Structures are given as C-alpha cells and as structure tokens.
Amino acid sequence: MARIPLLFLVVFLLSAATAAAQPTFRFGMRGGFNRATSTVEASHTSPSSAYYYLATKSPIHTWQGGAVLEVAFRRFSLQPALLFSQKGERLGATTSISGFAGVSSTEVSSVKRFNWLELPVNVVYGLHNFQVFAGPYVALGVGGRERGTQRQASPTAKYARIEFTKKVQYGSNTENRRLDAGVNFGLGYRKGPWQVQLGYGVGLLNLHQVDPDYTVDSVHNFGEDAAYNRVAQLTGTYFFEL
Known about the structure:
Layout: H1 3-17, E1 24-38, E2 43-44, E3 51-58, E4 60-73, E5 76-98, E6 103-127, E7 130-153, E8 162-167, E9 179-191, E10 194-203, E11 229-241
Antiparallel strand pairs: 1-4, 1-11, 2-3, 3-5, 4-5, 5-6, 6-7, 7-8, 7-9, 9-10, 10-11
C-alpha cells in the first residue's frame, strides 16, 4: 500500500517542477482496447493428497472509453482521465477428490468481465512527437458479468454440461473487492490533436476477499486466491483546445 502514496507524490513533484511555465489546457475524448487478465493461477497436485485442483487464466479482449484533461507545460503534460474500462479474464478450473468409490470432479470454464470506473493520472513527456508516460490509477467496480459452463462427474454418474450466466457482485458479502489501484506506463505518439498510446496497467490491490456466505462443498474456492489486474491497453485520444 505504501507504493500508492509514493506514486501520487511523484506526480505532485513533477507537476510542481513545471508550475513556473505557462500551462496549456486541452480536453480530449479517448477510446481504446484492453487485453486483460489477472495473475492468479492456483494449483495443488500433490500425489500424497486425495485433493486436486488446478486453475489457469488467459486474456480476454475488452474496451475502454472516456474523457481526458490535459495540462501541458512545454515537454511535460499532466493527463488525468475519467474512463469506463472493462477488464477480466478467461478461467479454466478443475477440482477433484479421490475416495474409496472413485474420483468426483468438477470442471468449470468461464469468461469474467468486470466493469470499472477508472481515474488514471499520467505524467507524459514528449520529444519529437514521441512520448513516454507513467502514473497511478484508482478504480471503482460498477458491475460486470460472468458466463461459462460447468460439468460434474462422480464414481456413479457423469452429468451433462451446464451453461450459466450471472452478474458480478461487489461488497463485504462477496468474493470481489470494489476498489482497485495500481500504475499505468507506456509509450505514445502525438501528432497535432491526435494521440495514440500503448500502455500496460499493473494492479497493486488484491481483487479477491473471503466470502463469508460461501457454503459450496468443494475442494477449493478459486475466488479466494489472490488476484491482481494486468491489462495491456491501446488507446486513441483527440484533444480540443480550451
């Protein structure tokens, strides 16, 4: 957590260092694409244990859009933005337990899309149209949806694959924390009012928490494993003079 206040301090110091210059203000509209996933890959495959579980994650492709304010000081600029940004993951999970009668197992495949209201604050340095940028962000979860399939098998039966869809819930009685924060950094190109940036977002807050209402009798609750957002971003912004 100490890293987050430090990032805001860096942004403040860079802004103060350029305060003597006459600033230029612009307003921009931003849109772009996300290649999103999270870090969790849980597994327990000990041959001495009757329990087995395995989870793998892969990226999904989503989008973002919103508004940007630019405060420019010569080669430096400060670009806070308010964005709707969709993140998430593709999950494959298997759990099983061995008993005297045989093996019981559950297989789940799902796509989770989390909606975030995000406030990034990037410091941008430009030279000959090329840019480097970095800065912190905070985000608030505002919904989402999970779609997937589940299949169960026991020593005596193999059940049909079931499709499911459900809304993403946040709060103290769920597995999902509503607040996220981290850093963005990357490269860009600026030509007149147009700006294109390729960046990467690193979440620093665990997205999961213990759900007190979780009562399903399974080998492992993957929703309680630590997970952090990881998002590659390609965005385009058009700026208007103020």
